[in-house]
Specification:
about 700 residues; Serine Threonine Protein Phosphatase 5, Tetratricopeptide repeat; 5 domains; 4-stranded antiparallel sheet
Length: about 700
């Protein structure tokens, strides 16, 4: 009888087990259509459902850029979100208006998979670890896609289902081994694995359908950008027109066409405004949508059409209006209405930080076109888009005001606007345009910008791999950075952005890293080391050079090591010798002289009148030191000093000390020249030779000063 009950118990347990196995059949497909979202998934799911209801008939128009933005941003968020909840919150915040219906439908299929993960959290408390699988799968695929110019996990679909399965399997297997999961959780993970592969395979055709359309659109946009860069304004206008013909109301298309029209109006080119534009212009006039001011000042058809396009843009995209406001300011400035221009620039400066996230929402779509990073022209496209949407470079409202004030002769106001720009850009999360901002100032705002960097050649940047604990070796991805102040000025509220150039990068490209540590003060003649800087995936041995951008309470400037400063100063000499022809140096020299209201003859006279030389005799062993004091204004040129020409390597003497003291640049040479010599002052703007005449008493007098 006892054995009988044991058998019954075994059969009963087996029956219950069979029932539970069927009830929790891990091999069954997750129901992708009829399910109730969990409270955690419901907010994001409801937003998606509401968007689907808005295009219920399936024939509604869609915005290709909004569609691509959602596709790529969700993939990027999936690979970067630190947790399941973070990703759900991101999905719930998105604006799905204008997204193609089939994209929304296939994205909805992801939610049952997410809910299964949520169930694991409730039963196994494994959610964060399970999220690691999905996140890692997407990252693996994104790495695999880097050479294919595609985005996210979908890129592997071009290799077929086996490629999809392989990539997802790698992520899940790595997780299983990492966590040593129990069999029950492992079975549920297997089901997640199969469903995720099915989701990706269903999504891939939809994804590539719209990416093909997006790529066709990009060809016309790219052509417009390149033509603007090359000065082919009429061709840029035609390319922008093709964008709008295919996609009326396209955000970038409207801006590109407006830019081309503003330039055409200035160039007075014989390109006819499109008949449809002329008709719309007349309709605006008839409808009273233009003020009397517009009628009087926008008689030029290019300007009138540009004004109308910018009005249309702000009506369509009020949350992304900053670029249009800036272009309105450029139009007003071109018309000679400086007061109205400044008002638009100020409004754009207010809006750019507030609208930064919305304006850069397509940046990932640009970055994922990896081929753009493989050519100078492609890098230009990326930088032009960034500048337009971040308010940098030519699209900086502060720089536009700075140029306007400089033109009016108001240098202090011009400098204040430059500083406002860098304060705004330094405070924004995106700093990748800081480098081009500096270059823009040096090229177009040199007279205003250079005095803001008075001591830049007297603050030295040095770096080396950070030492490990107790100095045992070096850390490959961390740097020790030191600043040395060779001036008598206090440098206050110091913020530093490292610009790192590594092997394989284009010669003018840098990665910008904001140093987390700030210094309240770097005193006169003080050397300060900063906390070790994390350079991410880069290795110190792969770094070819580093520059730094420094911002203080009243200054902005470059920081370089001695060799970079020397090579920059000597670039003017190479230009003079004809070995290097660089029109940028000539333009910079012209603008410097113009903005400083001086010329070569005046500078030579100033150097002669304000230079003094003293000789300090040595002790009983002989020798001595030569002290030369030059006007401090020369620091603006960031010069390099030598006795004897720099090319005379056998005799050239470099200063042992070079610092700023009061109104002077103070040089100390440890080696006494044998007779009268020339002191050479090299800079990329202008170079001098100062004759140091030996007197009978052993001292020196300043003789002729000539431009080299």
């Amino acid at each position: 009888m006892k054995k009988f009950w044991i058998v019954v118990l075994i059969i009963g347990v087996a029956g219950v087990g069979w029932y539970l196995y069927n009830r929790l059949d891990f091999s069954k497909s997750i129901d992708l259509e009829n399910y109730d979202p969990s409270p955690e998934c419901a907010p994001a799911y409801d937003v998606l459902e509401s968007a689907l209801e808005g295009c219920a008939d399936g024939t509604g128009e869609y915005d290709i850029e909004q569609t691509v933005r959602i596709m790529n941003s969700l993939e990027v968020a999936q690979s970067r979100s630190e947790s399941f909840d973070d990703f759900l919150e991101y999905m719930a915040r998105q604006d799905y208006r204008g997204v193609a219906r089939d994209v929304l439908e296939v994205k909805r299929r992801l939610f049952p998979i997410l809910d299964e993960m949520n169930e694991l959290r409730r039963t196994q408390k494994e959610l964060e670890s399970v999220w690691y699988c999905i996140r890692h799968a997407t990252r693996l695929a994104a790495d695999h896609a880097a050479d294919m110019g595609a985005s996210g996990v979908l890129a592997i679909c071009s290799g077929g289902g086996s490629a999809v399965k392989e990539c997802v399997d790698v992520a899940f297997e790595a997780y299983t081994e990492r966590e040593e999961l129990k069999r029950k959780t492992e079975s549920r993970l297997n089901r997640l694995r199969r469903q995720y592969i099915a989701y990706v395979e269903a999504y891939a055709p939809v994804y590539y359908k719209y990416m093909d359309e997006w790529n066709a659109l990009c060809l016309d946009k790219d052509r417009a950008y390149i033509n603007l860069y090359a000065g082919k304004t009429a061709d840029a206008y035609d390319s922008a027109e093709r964008v709008l013909r295919r996609h009326p109301g396209n955000r970038e298309g409207l801006l590109l066409k407006a830019i081309a029209l503003i330039r055409l109006g200035r160039e007075s080119r014989s390109v006819a405004v499109r008949p449809e534009d002329a008709a719309l212009n007349q309709q605006w006039l008839n409808d009273g949508r233009c003020t009397e001011y517009d009628r009087q000042t926008l008689a030029n058809p290019y300007y009138f059409t540009a004004q109308r396009l910018l009005e249309e843009y702000t009506e369509l995209y009020p949350a992304m209006a900053a670029p249009a406001l800036l272009l309105k300011g450029m139009l007003e400035e071109q018309l000679g209405h400086d007061v109205r221009a400044v008002a638009y620039y100020e409004q754009a400066a207010v809006e750019y930080p507030r609208q930064a996230e919305a304006l850069t929402d397509l940046l990932d779509s640009y970055v994922n076109r990896s081929y753009l990073n493989q050519s100078v022209e492609g890098r230009y496209l990326l930088n032009y888009y960034r500048a337009t949407m971040e308010g940098a470079g030519i699209f900086s409202p502060n720089f536009r005001k700075a140029a306007l004030f400089a033109r009016q002769g108001n240098r202090m106001e011009s400098q204040e606007e430059i500083y406002k720009h860098f304060f705004r850009r330094g405070s924004q999360a995106v700093q990748d345009c800081l480098l081009s901002d500096m270059q823009y100032c040096e090229e177009f705002l040199y007279g205003s910008f250079k005095p803001m960097m008075l001591e830049q050649s007297y603050v030295d940047l040095t770096y080396e791999p950070a030492a490990k604990f107790l100095g045992m070796g070096r850390k490959e991805n961390r740097l020790k950075v030191t600043l040395t102040n060779r001036s008598d000025s206090r440098i206050e509220n110091v913020r530093i952005f490292l610009c790192v150039h590594t092997v394989g990068m284009y010669k003018d490209d840098y990665d910008v890293i904001r140093m987390s540590q700030m210094r309240n003060v770097i005193g006169p003649y003080e050397s300060v080391s900063f906390d070790d800087v994390d350079i991410g995936q880069r290795k110190a041995e792969d770094i070819t050079r580093i520059r730094a951008i420094v911002m203080t309470d009243d200054k902005v400037g470059w920081l370089d090591n001695d060799e970079v400063k020397r090579q920059t100063a000597l670039s003017g000499l190479r230009q003079l010798a004809g070995s290097v022809i660089d029109s940028r140096i000539e333009v910079k020299a012209f603008r410097f002289m113009r903005d400083m209201a001086t010329d070569a003859k005046t500078l030579c006279r100033m150097v002669k009148e304000r230079t003094s030389v003293d000789f300090e005799k040595g002790g009983w062993l002989g020798g001595g030191k030569l002290h030369v004091r030059l006007p401090r204004l020369l620091a603006l040129l960031s010069p390099c000093y030598t006795i004897h020409p720099v090319e005379d390597t056998g005799n050239v003497i470099h200063p042992a000390e070079n610092k700023l003291v009061g109104d002077s640049v103070e040089l100390i040479f440890d080696k006494e020249p044998d007779a009268s010599v020339d002191l050479y002052i090299y800079s990329e703007i202008i170079s001098f030779a100062v004759e140091l005449q030996r007197r009978n008493d052993g001292g020196y007098a300043v003789g002729a000063v000539r431009k080299i």
